[in-house]
Structure of Large ribosomal subunit protein uL30:
Amino acid sequence: MIKVKLVRSRIGCNPNQRRTLDALGLRKIRQEKTFEDNAVVRGMIAKVVHLVEVTE
């Protein structure tokens, strides 16, 4: 399981990064979600790695 926490603001991000955060379900700063560890989620995290904090 992977825990993903939004730590930086979405303001100023490009639209693709915003859609990725929406798909991850991260809308507010300090919001956390837990996901299964798979390639799809890893790829989404890689797109917004500068905005999130990941713990395994």
